[in-house]
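Rotation project, supervised by the postdoc (A.L.). Task for the rotation student: set up a whole-complex structure prediction and record inputs and outputs verbatim in this book. Inputs entered:
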Amino acid sequence: MQYTFSNKSRNICFALIGIGLLSLVGGFLTDSHRAWPNLLLNAFYFTSIALGVLFFLAVNYAAEAGWFAAIKKPMEAIAAFLPLGSLILGGVLILSAFHLNHIYHWADPEVVHHDEIIAGKAAYLNKWFFTIRTIVYLGGWFLFYRAFQKYSQIEQQSYNTKNWRKTQSLAAFFLAFFAVTSSTSAWDWIMSIDTHWFSTLFGWYTFAGYFVSSLIVLTLVVLHLKSRGLLPEVNENHIHDLGKYIFAFSIFWTYLWFSQFLLIWYSNIPEEVTYFMDRMTNYKSIFILNLFLNFFFPFLVLMKRGSKRRYHLLTFVGIITLIGHWFDNFIMIMPGAVKEHWHVGWVEIGMFTGFLGLFGFIVMSRLASFSTVENKQHVFYSESVHHHI
Amino acid sequence: MSTKKVIYGIFDDDHALIESAKALKTKGIRVADVFSPFPIHGLDPVIGIKPTRLSNFAFWYGVFGTLSAVWMTWYMMISDWPMNIGGKPSFTWLENLPAFIPATFELTVFCAAHGMVISYLLVNKIYPGRKPHNPDPRSTDDKFVMQINTFDNKRVEEREIMDILKNTGSVEINEKVLS
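Outputs recorded:
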């Protein structure tokens, strides 16, 4: 069965993109110090969701999982935001590295000249090396995305175990590449905003955040397709498994968040603790909100078996947790970029809306471009249909 | 006193057993129990076994663990013998909360896990030296045994139950009189 991108949804997407463009222009005209980090935040947030879904696809292939075969098309559709998202994100990052704004302190030659600590990091954090790394990460992910797409087109034609084997080794190579780049990209793009501060754990913490968001978006798209009467073979068992993933990785995110926090809190070394001092004073409300939305809420509500199998409840929890992870990214980026002058107002919400519209437009057009959203030629399709837990 | 007669239908395939249970259910015949070497997914609702309440108990054991940890850390580290944690003032429990999270987590898991295991053993009356209730030792190896009590299904002829079992793939049917 084919998915139809209705005119109504299309118009909603355009309206959202319109609001986004208005607030983008308005934001840059009124206060570019506020607009730049916002652009980075939203570009990273939505691109990382597409990236997380691509990672999830690769994990399922590498692990020879069968249950996901019936929801593979929605996964591909979400990953389809990666090229455009990378383009926007890459543009923002490279312009920031060339000091068109004040997000990265190390990009400012004046600061580097007077700041000994930043000068010591100049061999790694300089605009050219940063640009090369950014292109390698985004380009590498894009090439893997294209290769997955190619194999997927072959897969659609016939039952083909050889092609599945090839996809599996591709997935393994992608995971190896992603294992390194997911960490280093988070260090480069997000952690270097607080240039003095460092944490080895930061890459995994960032990854855990966007992986939860990816799983939620995947669940929401699958539920959306089901509400349209598509994917009839996807039943509450598949949704239950997705719910378990969201539940488990919410805990995983908390585990990493707390592991980072506890060590810094315990040792109380000035150069490390400043990071949290900023966030616990100037950003106190968001700091607390972050833990509630991303840990206590999904943990307590999704604990029961029944709540993971109830579509409306799962949708509700998913949306709240998605907002929570947007705030998590907010508190990663803003303190270093704008200090205590943070807002959550029309610029922030408007830009988020714009990216949401763009993301929705790409995902839904990709879904509509499939001749069928079912994936019957997949090697594990019948295993997926008989998934029972 | 009437004799209590039990029928054992033995299967060598779990799917056949589920189909057989469904066929019996449509005739209104109640299956007393199934003995199987491994859990059979999807069998519980067919033979009318209610979902376990063990997970609800686990939650409350966990809550008990969390609260005991809160009390323990407060009493040991703040009240009875105030401890200096990393040079921080230890006047209130809340100020030192991060230091107590790992212990709280461990005690929560400890109580939930042990509570669950002990409840499971008690509810199922499993204790050292208990005689096995297994009707056929082969059900611990490669056979699946379905038990139907004739006294649960008085309205159905014994013959009919056996016919259904035979027609739905039972490889062997035994009868037993329980005094």
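Student's summary: Residues 54-123 of chain B form one domain.
Supervisor addendum: The beta strands of chain B are 5-11, 33-35, 144-149, 172-177.
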